[in-house]
Design goal:
This protein has 12 helices and 18 strands. The chain is of the alpha/beta class.
């Protein structure tokens, strides 16, 4: 995707051949800065403090974190320490564990002298696989947008509502929920995106709006509470969100507030789709509400906001009354019954155990 006309991915290997560069997403949308990761602690900090975020990008960053650890110490103890350090950063997104399990399986029982090269190679493969998967998600989701456009009688744009940021900033490139939107825009299909601001952290207003704007996709930022009103008045043709973990039965765990959007969509007969790469499916979990751990983050994410002042300064201010306690649940779970379909790299899949297992038989665990 493009920023000021220049193509970027969210993570890449530097010219030195070993350090890793990322976009610092905590600085967006008002500053575009990159950060260099030089060791596993840098990678863990980037994930924990949300310089990188989004399930696929978290997995890719963790993979490179293991590679950086192997560069310093290629022995088993260091591999295990890197795994535990990175795994402890964010508990909800299953891609983190998936990537770490894959890296450890690749490196375990291999000669120590080969591990650095193997680690970097596998991390790069994870990134390339993510790009290919998301491009394929875009192709399958494009058919849904094209069908919605065909139902328009006046050439009006297809209105897509999304929540949080499941764009290219949440992946290595393309994004999940945004991939069909970028594909439609690229083919000249009129499309307009309703962008939930997505408190706390405002990933919609800060990140989704940033990337859509830089890529030239028409969009409008709305308060989180507006979606239901728009659906009641026929102003949303379909919803597409991402997911940090999807169960074997089709329950979807995503940024807090996704469940409420799904309820509004269901009440107004608006299709509600979830775009996801297959590594986001956790075949060990059946009941998302009961079994998925929901990360609770610092209260300051709710009590404070950062923005740009009229004279260009970046300032953080308090918005909650002094002394008031704050709860900050980062995710919620949308039951499969509220999901119209899962947009995957292998097509649009019904949100149930049989359809998911049939589509990804190699991922099913006994």
């Amino acid at each position: 995707m493009k920023v000021d006309g220049k193509s970027y991915r969210t993570i890449w290997l530097n010219e030195d051949g070993w350090s890793v560069e990322i976009i610092d997403q905590t600085k967006l949308p008002h500053r575009f800065e990159t950060v260099t990761l030089r060791n596993v602690e840098d990678a863990a900090t980037a994930i924990r403090d949300m310089l990188v975020r989004g399930a696929p990008l978290i997995g890719a960053t963790a993979a490179y974190g293991v590679a950086l650890a192997m560069r310093e110490d290629p022995f088993d103890d260091a591999l295990d320490r890197a795994y535990e350090t990175l795994h402890a950063t964010r508990p909800t997104a299953i891609n983190l564990k998936w990537a770490l399990d894959g890296m450890r399986a690749t490196l375990r029982n291999r000669p120590h002298g080969e591990r650095v090269a193997l680690a970097y190679r596998r991390a790069a493969e994870i990134c390339e696989e993510d790009v290919a998967i998301n491009a394929s998600i875009g192709d399958h989701g494009l058919a849904l947008i094209r069908a919605a456009a065909a139902r328009k009688t006046d050439g009006a744009p297809v209105n897509v509502l999304t929540h949080c940021n499941a764009g290219w900033l949440a992946t290595v490139d393309w994004g999940t929920a945004t991939a069909p939107i970028y594909k439609a825009h690229g083919q000249g299909i009129p499309v307009h995106v309703w962008v939930d601001e997505t408190r706390p952290r405002n990933q919609g207003a800060a990140l989704t709006a940033f990337e859509l704007g830089h890529h030239g996709v028409p969009h409008t930022v709305i308060p989180d509470n507006t979606g239901g009103h728009l659906m009641q008045h026929g102003m949303v043709d379909l919803c597409i969100t991402g997911t940090d973990r999807t169960t074997a039965t089709g329950d979807v765990c995503n940024k807090i507030g996704t469940y409420l959007k799904a309820l509004a969509a269901h009440d107004n007969d608006v299709p509600f789709y979830v775009a996801l790469p297959s590594p986001t499916i956790d075949f060990t979990v059946a009941d998302g509400v009961k079994e998925i751990p929901i990360e609770q983050r610092a209260g300051d994410e709710v009590a404070k906001m950062t923005g740009k002042t009229e004279d260009g300064r970046i300032e953080t201010v308090s918005i909650v009354a002094d002394g008031s306690p704050v709860a900050n649940y980062a995710f919620d779970v949308t039951p499969a019954r509220l999901v119209t379909g899962l947009i995957t790299e292998r097509g649009v899949v019904e949100p149930n155990r049989e359809a998911i297992a049939r589509t990804f038989p190699e991922r099913v665990e006994d």
